[in-house]
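User: Can you predict the 3D structure for this chain?
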Amino acid sequence: MILPKKVVYCLLLVLAGGNILFRYPLDVGHELGADTTFVHTLTTGLVQDGHAAWILHPLSYFGLYALSYPSAMPFTFASMSLLGIASEASMLLFGWIIAVVGGFGAYLAARSVRRDDVFALLVATLFSLTPYYLKDTFWVGSSRGFVVGLVPIMVLLLSGHLRTRRFLWFVLAIVLIVLLTSIHRMGILAFFILVAYLFAIPFHKVTQKLRFALARYERPSRYALFLSGVMGFVSVFYVQFAYPGIGGANVVEQYGKGVFSGSSFPVVLANMGFSLAGKVGPLIPFAGVGLVAQTWRRPKEVADKFLLTAVVLFLPLLPLRDYIAEFLFLFFVILLVVGLLWIREVRPNRRKLLSAGIAILVLGSLATSWVMKDYWRQRYPTDAAVPSLAYQTGTYLKFMTSGTILSNDGLMGGQLAASSGRAVLPLGGASLHWTSPQQLLWGFVDPKQLEIRPLDLATISFNTDSIFVPVNIPTAEFDWEEILGYTAPSLAARDLQTYGVHFVVVDMRIPLEFQSYGYDRPSGFLVLVHNTDYEVYDSGKLSIWYVG
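Assistant: Here is the predicted structure, written as structure tokens:
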């Protein structure tokens, strides 16, 4: 259905408003997530130092070199900070911008696949308000959601090139792949969309020739091609269950536990379905219907072949972390909308009734998104908002203390680092402690003394974070645990001096313990601190001790 342009513009404006409303911090006072505080520390260090200490090599900007991280977002937030917009405000604002851009991009991408405004508007609505995409663009600095929001633009550019053959579209797509990779490592998955695009061109030519060659056998050839297509999708999907780990990650390990427990195909499939439903929405089963419907329609346009080849290419990769599922949000949504509208076409005499049913399902999906948008931050401490107390304590640390701060809780330490702009032990956030760019940012590692070696090509997989690793560097995580485990003042003093620690922040829920990887462990060092050192700050929940 083609709608008047003014109607489309008005509906897109309503969608933009809805995207901001869903992401408006009604009961949240600060930024969310441990990964966000990590990016915040990189941003602060960039502003304070005037350069990114972790960029030692051109690949460092993409997070592919040793002790690095994809740097587009820290540079963006730092630039906005220099314009007078605080990092917290820029993260909130950027999430809104990406949400709106993602919705508009999804509309245009869907419109390039099918010239139907209702279809495109449904895709834009369900994509931009997908539960996990909401979570990843709601006041965060973690950049996975920003990559997901730009995937529709990638699809639009390649579809535009397939349709018009204008070389500019292709060049812009390549530039976008580079940009996505600099935002987050999962951006490299855009390369597979490019592969699907390159395969779609000869695939389209072959199917067109087959269509004319088999014109005399219209009905049997249609059934044969339909069944072979569906069986091809099923086979590609099932191979990861028949041979767990064949694609790198083991589907049984990823989905063997969840709503159900076990290693059988029904259990693993059910857990995968529930996981996708929680991220994409309750309408995800219609994606299977849409895949069948799209195959039955015998897609005539090359853009349709592009969509199907992309799905085939990504299906075997579903067990590989959460990144693949997030990256496929647009394709899932397009297919489920195809499935919903196909059901309406099956019974033309019941079109009004079926349209009303589809509207109810869509509204139900949006209501689920509204409920699920707070699920992760309420369930997982690592996704929760930074508490106001951490910002108050961080302000005190910023103006009233010096040196590196030592914390007995890693999650709190990351929050204090973000709010104070100070170096904190332990390291925390998106990168592993022993390969974190904070090692360079805070001067724990001298870049002139670094020895870097490339990984063996045979060991590189989808789970690899970088293709270069540092050799024999200090490990701040292990040193932090050693310090807190010391019972002799002389040993503690030696390591405290190495890292320049003068103040210790103690979470008063565990005053004589420290939390490491979710476990509370006794600390001989904190016993020494409480017996021999001076308390300079006490908020009831956090206390700060001067240790010399």
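The chain has two domains: 5-30+86-378, 386-546. The beta strands are 404-407, 424-425, 451-454, 468-471, 501-507, 513-516, 519-522, 534-538, 542-546.
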